[in-house]
Amino acid sequence: MNPLPRLSESQIERIRQVKHVFEKVERLTGVPWQAVAAVWYRESFSVTPPKTPGGPFQFDPVLQPETICNLLKFFTRLSSAEIEQYASKGINDFETGALCAACWLRLKTKPVITPEASDEVIKDALYGYNGRAYGGADKSPYVMNGFDQTHRDMVLRGTIPDGRGGRKWVEIVDKRPGAFTVYKQLKSLIL
Question: For residues 14 and 116, what is the distance between their CA atoms, to the nearest angstrom?
Answer without folding.
Answer: 25
